């Protein structure tokens, strides 16, 4: 939108060009170019106008019809701005498939500066701008929907996992007194299992809370997040996951979250697909400012020829790595486990 108004203002030397978008029951001016907008000392007021009720902009937004005003001083709908030298104005709706998105507003400091030819030109430009705005909105909605869907999926998995872990812990707690009276050594083993399940459930609950509060996810250290993943896997599935962290460092939030998500997907695969007996998570902060993350298990592995690229979250892991400019490698052989390695360098754009 900023490019549209600047190109229009520069090409035709208009006094002012602005775009207002409909937000609820108001048209809100978000971008502009020209003497008014570019003057740092000028306050663009009113910046919000009621659709169909206030100003020329509100009228066009409400009717969806273009409007040429040869002399704004003679139009009762015009809302005057202090400091403005506007004398005439032309406004065309920004619309897609009959739905008005906003208004393209062009103003002149001369009387009768516009005619129907200007309307035709501006309508053509407004149509192109409308399509671009709608595409951008649809893309943004698709991105938000994808994020929400993934967050809900992870939350469901975590909720199910916590329920399962607590149910197992409850069964052990019920059986423990009788087993203890019969065989204290076996009772000690059940106590150890109960402790492990409780730690796992606690780790999973912490992870669940983080999923519900994305800002906290970005603020929690990557080492702590990986520790919760390893403890949750140990408690839920009985798969001991060893964690090692070398060095320390600060990562951009998008890198921080993406590495955690990749590790989360890989750890989930240990139980869901690999049937692993143990696993390792290794995080190393590099002297160059980058970071290397490796997740490995001793599970049954897989053949790349038999597994589709998008199965077992492999595609998701690659996409996340690509989004932050990281290199990812996934190596596996039947009966020989799986190794996922991600390396991000700080000089790469993300």
**SS summary, helix count:** 9
Stretches where pLDDT is under 50 for at least 5 consecutive residues are none
Mean pLDDT equals 82
Helix content: 40-55%
Rg, Cα atoms, Å: 30 Å
CATH superfamily of the domain at 221-350: Histidine kinase-like ATPase, C-terminal domain
CATH topology of the domain at 221-350, by name, is Heat Shock Protein 90
Would you spell out the secondary-structure blueprint of this structure?
Layout: H1 2-12, E1 16-23, E2 26-34, H2 35-38, E3 48-50, H3 55-63, E4 67-69, E5 88-96, E6 99-108, H4 116-182, H5 184-212, H6 214-219, H7 222-237, E7 241-246, H8 253-274, E8 279-285, E9 291-297, H9 314-323, E10 327-332, E11 338-344
Parallel strand pairs: 7-8
Antiparallel strand pairs: 1-2, 1-6, 2-3, 4-5, 5-6, 8-9, 9-11, 10-11
Helix pairs in contact: 4-5, 5-7, 7-8, 8-9
List keywords for this structure.
alpha+beta; Beta-Lactamase; Heat Shock Protein 90; six-stranded antiparallel sheet; elongated
């Amino acid at each position: 939108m900023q490019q549209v108004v600047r190109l229009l203002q520069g090409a035709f030397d208009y006094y002012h060009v602005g775009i207002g978008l409909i937000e609820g029951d108001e048209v809100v001016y978000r971008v502009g170019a020209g003497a008014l907008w570019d003057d740092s000392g000028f306050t663009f007021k009113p910046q919000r106008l009621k659709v169909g009720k206030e100003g020329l902009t509100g009228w066009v937004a409400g009717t969806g019809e273009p409007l040429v005003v040869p002399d704004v001083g003679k139009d009762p709908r015009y809302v005057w701005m202090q400091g403005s030298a506007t004398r005439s104005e032309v406004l065309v709706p920004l619309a897609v498939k009959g739905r008005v998105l906003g208004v393209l507003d062009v103003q002149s400091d001369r009387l009768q500066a516009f005619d129907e030819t200007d309307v035709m030109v501006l309508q053509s430009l407004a149509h192109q701008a409308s399509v671009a705005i709608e595409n951008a909105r649809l893309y943004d909605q698709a991105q938000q929907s994808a994020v929400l869907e993934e967050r809900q999926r992870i939350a469901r998995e975590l909720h199910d996992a916590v329920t399962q872990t607590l149910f197992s812990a409850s069964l052990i707690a019920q059986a423990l007194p009788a087993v203890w009276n019969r065989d204290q050594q076996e009772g000690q083993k059940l106590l150890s299992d109960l402790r492990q399940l409780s730690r796992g459930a606690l780790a999973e609950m912490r992870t669940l809370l983080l999923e519900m509060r994305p800002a906290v996810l970005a603020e929690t250290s990557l080492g702590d997040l990986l520790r919760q993943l390893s403890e949750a896997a140990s408690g839920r599935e009985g798969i001991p996951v060893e964690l090692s962290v070398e060095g320390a460092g600060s990562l951009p939030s998008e890198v921080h979250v993406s590495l955690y998500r990749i590790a989360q997907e890989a750890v989930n695969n240990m139980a869901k697909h690999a049937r692993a007996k143990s696993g390792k998570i290794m995080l190393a902060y590099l002297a160059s400012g980058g970071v290397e993350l490796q997740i490995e298990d001793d599970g049954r592995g897989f053949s790349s020829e038999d597994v589709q690229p998008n199965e077992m979250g492999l595609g998701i892991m690659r996409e996340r790595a690509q989004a932050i400019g990281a290199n990812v490698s996934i190596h596996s052989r039947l009966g020989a486990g799986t190794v996922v390695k991600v390396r991000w360098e700080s000089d790469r754009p993300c």
